[in-house]
Model the fold of this input.
Amino acid sequence: MSEQGLQTTTGDRGILLRPTRASLQRFGRQAALVAVIVLVGLFLVGMGHRVGYGAADYLQLLVDGLQIGAVYALVALGFVVVYRVTGVINFAQGAFVMLGPMLTITLFGSLSGSPVFRLVVSALGAVLFVAAVGMAIHRLTLHPARKASALTRIIITVGVYISVQGIALIAWGPRPYVLPAFTTLQMVDRLVEVGSIIIQAQTFWIWGVAVAMLVLLALFFERTVVGKAMRACAVNRIAAQLMGIRVDRMATLAFGLAAVLGAVAGIVLSPATRPTYDMGLELGLKGFVAAIMGGLVSFPGAVVGGIALGILESLWGGVTLAGFKDLFAFLMLILSLLFWPQGILAGKGEGGS
Amino acid sequence: MRTRGIKAAILAATLLVTVPLWAGPARVGTPYKIGFIASITGPGASLGKPERDVARLMQERLNREGGIVGTDGVRHEVQILINDDQSRADTAASLARRLIEQEQVHVLVAGTLSGPSLAMVPIATELRTPMISMASARAIIEDPETKRMRPWIFKPVPENLHSAAKQAEYLKAIGITGVCHLYENTAYGKDTFESAKVEFGKVGIRILYGDSFDRFATEFPQVTRVRASGCKAVVIGSIPPAAAVINVAVAGRVGLRKIVHGHGACSPDLIRTAGAAAEGTVMPCGKILVADQLPATDPVRRVNLELIQEYTRITGGDPISTFAGHAYDALQWALLALREVPDGLPLARVREAVREALEGKIKNYVGTHGVMTLSPEDHLGFNPKDFVIVTVRGGRFVILPREQWK
Done:
């Protein structure tokens, strides 16, 4: 908008100069992206050579990164859904990621019947419950504060996260829990060997569920009235309201949707790890980094951001000291905010510009 | 003649039984307070909770016996004040200060984890109060710069150096010369790594790849590095739950490499959380964990079996852990030292007397982890020979005798 103002006041010169400047900027960004990719690639190969890596080792790291990247992508989508409709960065997203598996495990333990039946019912039950929690959180905390500034509302979500984690500590205690692997229905998962690469069977579940969620999400936004209404709120809230869309309801629904995404991500991941009451912090923050890398408003951006973060983190950790892989993730956050505030897919996709 | 003999015997027996009563009940002295701080919640909870349970058990025992009777024959009530530092160093420090200054405890049994323990060390030292820690780091009892014992601090807990020495002995015996070392990103984990460097180096075992991991981590690039490094065993420096998480991530994905834990993993939590992934892993453990498998000649066996029986009763069936043993030994040391203190001293003098008794009077103490003797030069008194190599078999910890090492 300010650039448009510039255009009218400076007259012809401005009109002539502006595209050049913009294209220069675009060129600069693309050049920076290419330079960074080349540098990172060289760094990975150099360091990998030092520790004696072959192609199979890189491939293994890639697969591992793709596994966790899919989870980051789902969590990141939750951030994007809420941000687009309400303009709030919802730091309570991590709480949904934790509640999903914890509730599934509790339900799984209390049901009777065949393990498959128990797993399906408890996972669905947990997802629905977390969705309700998500909507309740919006109604009870953010809705009353809808007139407050965005910063205030973001801080509220931080408070909500801390409260939910505290309640989880009381409910489940500090010890880690175990959700059986989907394939073996036991504590220990099957390992699939492809050449010299080893993949947990759960990884395929993670990928499958992530893809299914993406398809469902796309159908929801493209084909359903509610989905379209939600997109309308994202494009222009006031116009949407004038068209008779209940923006408040859409915001509550967005929280429900984000909660579903978070809970599903947590549930499919948990057999590959050991869920605890505080697992949401790390996954929530990584999802946030992925969302930022994707530009925070773009669904494809969030997916690409999540996968890119997972893979880069895994490769970086594999060639340097893996204990510092979180450092790298947050370095990515700073870099993307500095160089690609619009996301790495800037200019593509609906909300990219 | 015979009846008279029997009557005399009965009289003698009656006299023997009632003489203590004639002397009247032991004089009652000032009640003692033990400040107990453990990590009952937070990441250290799987260690701190058993410790808390032991503190409760000991309090129950003390109440039943009417406190302790000192060597001067004076009876003292003992109160154990149980506190939770939430696995945080700052909370631990402020709790320690409060217990010493406001509650006026005579001795502290404090610190489940090394971090919080180290945070309390300067406070106990400054306020001249003896402190017995339940954590493992060497720096708790020894000043790393001067290499001298900290006068006020004690601990009955074996160190990572002892653990690493035992691991080295085992690895050497099974013919492994290159290992990978994965340690959790905490004071404890880093100490296991430093200790391994020292002890493995002594017997010529090289660490081909050493790396830390985060206890929240959900994906481990370390596994790929382990496979690329050519090491023949993976040594894990971690406590459950993190130890279980990395165990699960590594098991089955690093080929036939042997997985060796540190003594911090000697907890039923490892088996419960890692499940079958823990099968076949090996670790040096304190004897308490496998007390029922010890030979009857081992003096440690009886102490442990008694403790385990009471512990199972008070917790409603929890399996024993080494940490329960540490709390037991620490509290026993405190009580043994308090017995040596003459009645009627002012608070500051009692604390000094406890310190002196800990240094001078704990000799051949039969504890849960071995037979220990304290001295001004050694505030731990542990002999690494008292560690046993243990493996997980059929969901249980089983002693692996020397001849079965392979």
